[in-house]
């Protein structure tokens, strides 16, 4: 008979910017209302060939621009551990669906932490692969040089399995890399070797909540008890990552979203009458949300004559320095360990009117995207409000097997992945 796939019959929840043939895909935006892709994304084809069943798309910040899943034309998504809190973003719908048991696994995209942030806030596992490890074909772009598709799952083994399936060279994505795909599900089970773990001092600054620091430090001690050794390392340009990241992603978003005008692409509008430029402006103004408009404005400004060298080119230079920081750090250690987020999930509505404060929430995640390296977030404890705390493991280029191995061994010791939110049936 026909061979049964590795995911036969398992429900897949898909972030609403990864194309599924014939299924409404909107990126959480009014401007894509009614859009149905005529093809599957590379990762969707891979998963369906293994028997996964697509059960629907998940809510997200509009065009992945946000860290709380509040910037959506469908309204906010809530955290299953406390429905007065955000689930993180921009893949908050995917993380919430997995945490609440609505899906066995989900796909997300990570541009500056959009898989790892909601994984940390919702107490699940989120993996951002090395840039190029997974094809981006069929991913509706936010920032091409930063975006990466990855899995959100309940445990590390499931993330390893999904990564095995979706990794590999794709001729339709020139940035995908033809490099050996390791047997991750076997690698993670191997005994914990005497790894050297780097603890980047800048990731434990004053801005990090004390309960988060304590939980992460206890997890590092647990890894030491398993045979790891730790060494302090430095990522000296971390303080510049927020400015660098947002400059670059806004510039790329300005370019990527230029086609959405209601005529060439995007929702048809009654505004398309009279002067063509005025019509374009009205269409985009009516159908893009405020955060998307803000980023388009700022990105267009930074790319304009007279400011291109001052902002965009300087940001590219700083990005190179951040990459170099990680290269130097990995000369001293195998992987880096640190918090995923500065705090646990914040209240719905508490930061939505303060974009600068919202942007600073990415301080521990976006440097990974600027460097293009892999990172994994797993739950490592709870704060005094019973909200999950995320533990981040950052790897060298294409060392997903290394960070998955560390994550799996720690996860088995902590046992937190077995806990479920109070919102779900039988939650304890």
Task: Write structural notes for this entry.
This protein is an alpha/beta fold and 428 residues long. The protein has a single domain, classed as Amidase signature (AS) domain (Amidase signature (AS) enzymes). It contains 13 helices and 10 strands. Helix 4 packs antiparallel against helix 13 (400-414). The N and C termini lie far apart (42 Å).
SSE inventory with pairings:
Blueprint: E1 11-15, H1 42-49, E2 53-58, H2 92-99, E3 105-109, H3 116-122, E4 125-128, E5 149-153, H4 156-166, H5 184-187, E6 196-200, H6 210-225, E7 229-233, H7 241-256, H8 276-287, H9 290-303, H10 308-329, E8 335-339, H11 355-360, H12 366-371, E9 375-382, E10 388-395, H13 400-414
Parallel strand pairs: 1-2, 1-3, 6-7, 6-8
Antiparallel strand pairs: 3-5, 4-5, 4-9, 8-10, 9-10
Summarize the model shown.
The protein has helices at 42-49, 92-99, 116-122, 156-166, 184-187, 210-225, 241-256, 276-287, 290-303, 308-329, 355-360, 366-371, 400-414, and strands spanning 11-15, 53-58, 105-109, 125-128, 149-153, 196-200, 229-233, 335-339, 375-382, 388-395.
